[in-house]
Amino acid sequence: MKFEPVIGLEVHAQLKTNAKIFCGCSTAFGAPPNTHVCPVCLGMPGVLPVLNKGVVEYAMKMALATNCHVEGTSRFARKNYFYPDLPKGYQISQYELPIARNGHVNITLEDGTVKKIGITRIHMEEDAGKLVHDPNRPVSYVDYNRTGVPLIEIVSEPDICSPEEAGAYLRQLRSILRYLDISDGNMEEGSFRCDANVSVRPRGTSEFGTRTELKNLNSFKFVEKALAYEIDRQIEALANGSLVVQETRLWDSEKSRTISMRGKEEAHDYRYFPDPDLVPLVIDRAWIKEVKKSLPELPDQRRQRFVRDYNLPEYDADVLTASRETADYFEQCAALISNPKTASNWIMGELMGLLNAKGLSITESPISAKRLADLIKLIEEGIISGKIAKTVFDEMADSDRVAKTIVEEKGLVQVSDESAIEETVARVIENHPEEVEKYRGGKTKLFGFFVGRVMKETGGKANPQVVNRLLKNRLDNK
Ligand code: ADP
Ligand code: MG
Ligand code: ZN
Fold first, then answer.
1. Which residue CA neighbors atom 15 of ligand 1 most closely?
2. Ligand 1, atom 17, residue with closest C-alpha
3. What is the predicted pLDDT for the residue at 384?
4. What is the signed CA dihedral for 56, 142, 268, 165, rounded to 10 degrees?
5. Which of 100, 152, 211, 357 has fewest C-beta within 10 Å?
6. pLDDT tens-digit profile of 402-417?
7. Which of 160, 197, 269 should be mutated for ligand 1, with most atoms under 8 A from CB?
8. How far apart (Å, rounded) are the C-alpha atoms in residues 358 and 339?
9. Rounded to the nearest 5 degrees, what angle is found at the Cα of 275, between the Cα atoms of 44 and 70?
10. CATH class of 418-476
11. DSSP code of 304?
12. What is the side-by-side strand order in the sheet with 273-274?
């Protein structure tokens, strides 16, 4: 029997407001432990939470950007459990009335088709504190700086069918959060976290299988690896006639496997109930409209504009708009040259290769958009060939010099002067009588051989178009 996976993701994103969700404490990262705290976020008796309007605005932005319906009335609820990082003994979250529902995002699959992934709900909640375990003594410390930092949870429909789609969906969510500038979306640093729910079912059937929930996934790579492992594990279990147990499993990145953390029996009963300290949240139409108007151009729209206005292939547009900074870089570069596709090729190829090798982001690029455009202009003007341009690009990566200076200093200017090239062409033909005979006898593939010879003799500087034309002339007209 063939099985297919069914995946639904729960994503927590930390919002970038300056203050916490229910008090005025700072959300700044990296302060000494327990310095960004007050009686409210420490859960002292008698204190009252006051909702930060900025958090609601950010949550609304994400809701609108993901095509959700923003609810006119929503409610905060208490999620009750005990843990030392949770001073109140409950987390303020939203439960039966979340701020937004029924949205979707589009992801681009490998073959270029676009797939819609449904979003069940988005709700706001507060983060818990952080336990720090002493590696040398049986002692743990608690840091409450993070307590009350605002989060949104984005719950997907079980519309995702493979680990790759899960990765694409997460990248799309992160990209939207970053375009909106409401979250850092950094998985490694914990400002973007994901729990993955996965089950398998016989291909073609519609009923869901029993799912497991995977936690401890702190990179995109781990999400995809953990899902792939878990899908195999579940299929094997079913194929062997055993059952999948509904449970929470942890990803063990060292051993590359998932391990059982807790079963359904041990699952929490959180005893949710509406928080009596907070009135229902009422959002009027006018505010929704205002927030909608304030939305920047989003990745999807920008991708479509790149295809339309720059005439780029879907694939290029998708890669270039994945991050706002890369898209900005492309637009700056494209504005200075004639053919936008050339800028796209250089950015996706040479530039991204360089940045990957150096572990840099595009905002840290040693070659600015203007410097890259200057280099591309030299190709467009026929001053250097594309091949020479790669050498110049490498030089530019290690110095501040502009392309033109490097080309002049190194004497790389392309030779388009026909008489000079003609001379080399004649010599190459004269020196390879055997190849000439074979070529004229029908082995036309040898043409590349002659081009290569001429280019070699001119140190790569001959204008390839002129070389092609002159060679053809000589070889075809004896
Ligand atoms: P819980 O609150 O217990 O985690 P939810 O009903 O909120 O449960 O579901 C959480 C996530 O699990 C959602 O993203 C949903 O799409 C996904 N999910 C639900 N059932 C399945 C299933 N059988 N297989 C895979 N994913 C599922
Ligand atoms: Mg869950
Ligand atoms: Zn506080």
1. 8
2. 8
3. 84
4. 60
5. 357
6. 888 888 887 777 777 7
7. 197
8. 28
9. 125
10. mainly alpha
11. H
12. 90-93, 77-80, 273-274
Low pLDDT (below 50) residues in the chain = none
Task: Give the closest ligand to the alpha carbon of residue 212.
Answer: 1
Total residues found in the chain within this entry = 478
List the chain domain ranges: 3-290, 307-396, 418-476
Model pLDDT, residue 210? 94
Cβ–Cβ < 8 Å for 147, 127:
yes
Distance 368 CA to ligand 1 centre (A): 45
CA of 248 to the centre of ligand 2 (A): 9
Show the ligand 1 pocket: residues with CB < 6 angstroms: 6-10, 155-158, 197-199, 208, 211
**What CA–CA distance (Å, rounded) separates 203 from 58?**
40
Ligand closest to 268 (CA) is 1
Distance (Å) from CA 258 to ligand 1 centroid:
18
Give the Å distance between the CA of 170 and the centre of ligand 1: 16
Atom of ligand 1 nearest to the CA of 210: 23
Q: Report the Cα–Cα distance between both ends of the chain, in Å, rounded.
A: 67
Tokens of 214: 């995977």
> What is the model's pTM?
0.86
Q: Which ligand is nearest to the CA of 215?
A: 2
**Pairing of the two strands 114-126 and 140-143:** unpaired
What CA–CA distance (Å, rounded) separates 105 from 119? 7
Q: How far apart are CA 372 and CA 469, in angstroms?
A: 29
| One-letter amino acid for residue 387 of the chain | K
Nearest-angstrom CA–CA distance, 233 and 239? 10
- The pLDDT of residue 188 is 84
